[in-house]
């Protein structure tokens, strides 16, 4: 009888929630996601397509819209390789080397998460503005940073560079360096060890970080808004063009560009789910 009671206790521990608690939590979660995520997302696509497919296409083919899409793609294409190299280098430095001041680097790595993007954009204006020492010197050399593509790329680099490193550091710390030490012991040089051992072990986390960086780079608004100058046809990215079009009551254009960013977000979530599954495996 005692054994039976103990078995029943194991099957139904006192800490197990009642079924109504589980269903209440499920209801709250679904209701919240419907109100905050699904309904707004569906509304964006509805507003973008309510005037018909031809109006949708015409909006996206407007010169200002094409310029915004082009600038967004160019910025992302420039940011991703740089952030990938910096992220991998920082992760390897932090997890594979011991040195004084490591905590300073790990703290600074989180700075873009702690600082408002608008403040980040303002910092670049204060450093590279035309009236500053460095900015004035660069402009005398024919290099304009603020109110140009260069400033947009720098601001986007700042707000996105921690993502890859922050994805890799926990994984590399958990994996340890035993396999890499074994490769070196067997005669591999540093590059052979990295390409044959380190990179295959971190590839899924690296891809995951690249996807997050790509999504943030395309959707960044605050820092880019400060350094861009909102020059029509030149320095407006997709998020900036959405705000401008909406304020000018060009709702079809605003929602058409919003739908493109939403599609990118959905694709990102899909690939992110695949990456997470592969990372767990």
Structural overview:
InterPro entries: CysW_permease, MetI-like, MetI-like_sf, Sulph_transpt2. It holds the Pfam family BPD_transp_1. Keywords: Membrane, Sulfate transport, Transmembrane, Transmembrane helix, Transport. The protein has 281 residues and is mostly helical. It has a single domain, classed as MetI-like (MetI-like fold, Orthogonal Bundle). Helix 4 packs antiparallel against helix 12, helix 9 packs antiparallel against helix 13 and helix 10 packs antiparallel against helix 12. The radius of gyration is 24 Å and the shape is globular. The two termini are 43 Å apart.
Order of helices and strands: HHHHHHHHHHHHHHH
Give the integer mean of the pLDDT values: 87
Structural class: mainly alpha
Looking at CATH, which topology would you report? MetI-like fold
What is this structure's SSE topology?
Layout: H1 2-11, H2 19-49, H3 53-60, H4 63-96, H5 102-109, H6 111-114, H7 117-128, H8 133-140, H9 149-160, H10 162-175, H11 178-185, H12 190-219, H13 222-228, H14 238-247, H15 251-280
Looking at this protein, list some descriptive labels.
single chain; 281 residues; mainly alpha; MetI-like fold; 15 helices; 0% strand; disordered N terminus; Sulph_transpt2; sulfate transport; Sulfate ABC transporter permease subunit CysW; CysW_permease
């Amino acid at each position: 009888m005692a054994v039976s009671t103990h078995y029943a206790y194991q099957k139904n521990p006192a800490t197990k929630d009642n079924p109504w608690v589980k269903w209440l939590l499920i209801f709250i979660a679904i209701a919240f996601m419907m109100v905050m995520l699904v309904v707004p997302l569906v509304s964006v696509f509805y507003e973008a397509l309510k005037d018909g497919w031809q109006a949708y296409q015409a909006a996206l083919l407007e010169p200002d819209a094409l310029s915004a899409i082009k600038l967004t793609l160019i910025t992302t294409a420039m940011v991703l390789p740089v952030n990938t190299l910096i992220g991998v280098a920082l992760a390897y430095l932090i997890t594979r080397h011991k040195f004084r001041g490591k905590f300073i680097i790990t703290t600074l790595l989180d700075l873009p998460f702690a600082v408002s993007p608008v403040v980040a954009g303002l910092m670049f204006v204060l450093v590279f503005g035309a009236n500053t020492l460095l900015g004035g010197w660069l402009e005398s050399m024919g290099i304009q940073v603020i109110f140009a593509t260069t400033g947009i790329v720098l601001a986007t680099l700042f707000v996105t560079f921690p993502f890859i490193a922050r994805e890799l550091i926990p994984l590399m710390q958990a994996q340890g360096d035993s396999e890499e030490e074994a490769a070196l012991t067997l005669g591999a040089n540093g590059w052979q060890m990295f390409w044959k051992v380190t990179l295959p072990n971190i590839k899924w986390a690296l891809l995951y970080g690249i996807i997050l960086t790509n999504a943030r780079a395309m959707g960044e608004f605050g820092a880019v808004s400060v350094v861009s100058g909102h020059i029509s046809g030149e320095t407006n990215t997709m998020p900036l063009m959405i705000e401008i079009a909406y304020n000018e009551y060009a709702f079809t254009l605003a929602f058409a560009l919003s739908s493109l960013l939403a599609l990118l977000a959905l694709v990102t979530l899909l690939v992110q789910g695949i990456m997470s599954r592969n990372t767990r495996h």
